Amino acid sequence: MLSVLIETRNDEEGLARTLASLIGGAVEGVVRDVIVCDAGSTDQTHRVAEHAGCHYVAGAVAAGIGQAKGDWLLLLEPGARLGEGWIEEVAAHTARQTMPARFSRARANRTPFLARVFSGNRALAEGLLISKRQASALAKNARSAEALARGLATRRLNAEIWVAPPK
């Protein structure tokens, strides 16, 4: 079972797009719970989370990790959308692996090489699938989901993600 954590701040539209892409996982029984970690939003983010049936946590991702019910966590940016086939790929990875993994960018969503080199690299742009045990240990020193994801050695999943647009 998988817990999804989305750390957000003033991005109700992006949050709604991400939650919509998770519906299939909830129906299939792969997604156990979705936790929205809000870092001080002033918009209607809390309403979007509550209407979608998510757990709403005011604070950093460490608080969300503590409430997660799944043995594996999927950290996503608001606005990211998972492509078809992600459910099977995540289920297969969690059954056989212990190391973290990231999704592959959708072909139509890939940025040119030089643009990637010279732009700021967001550690959560491709999501992060990580065991709850490892995330809990890393969260002690990380103030955000982005900091938790930075610098981890990961496997590449054979499932696509449409990356959230930069803010």
Structural key phrases:
single chain; 167 residues; alpha/beta; 5-stranded mixed β-sheet; 3-stranded mixed β-sheet; 8 helices; 26% strand
Describe the structure.
There is one protein chain. By secondary structure, this protein is α/β, with parallel strands linked by helices. The protein is 36% helix and 26% strand. It contains 8 helices and 8 strands, in the order βααβαβαββαβαβααβ. The chain has helices spanning 12-21, 23-28, 45-51, 61-67, 86-96, 113-118, 132-139, 145-149; strands spanning 2-8, 31-38, 55-58, 72-76, 81-82, 101-105, 128-131, 155-162. It has a 5-stranded mixed beta sheet, with helices on both faces. Strand 2, helix 3 and strand 3 (55-58) form a beta-alpha-beta unit. Helix 1 (12-21) packs parallel to helix 3 (45-51) and helix 4 packs antiparallel against helix 7. The longest helix has 11 residues, at 86-96. The radius of gyration is 15 Å and the shape is globular. The relative contact order is 0.21. The model has no long low-confidence stretch (mean pLDDT 89).
Describe the structure in brief:
The protein has helices spanning 12-21, 23-28, 45-51, 61-67, 86-96, 113-118, 132-139, 145-149; strands spanning 2-8, 31-38, 55-58, 72-76, 81-82, 101-105, 128-131, 155-162. It is an alpha/beta fold and 167 residues long.
Strand arrangement in the largest pleated sheet:
3-2-1-4-7
Low-confidence stretches: none
Question: What composes the largest sheet?
Answer: 5 strands, mixed
Shape: globular
Distance between the termini: 31 Å
- Estimate the mean pLDDT confidence: 89
How much helicity do the residues have?
25-40%
Task: Classify the secondary structure makeup into a structural class.
Answer: alpha/beta
Strand content: 25-35%
User: What is the string of helix and strand elements?
Assistant: EHHEHEHEEHEHEHHE
Rounded to an integer in angstroms, the radius of gyration calculated over CA atoms is 15 Å
Q: What's the number of extended β-strand segments?
A: 8
Alpha plus pi helix count:
8
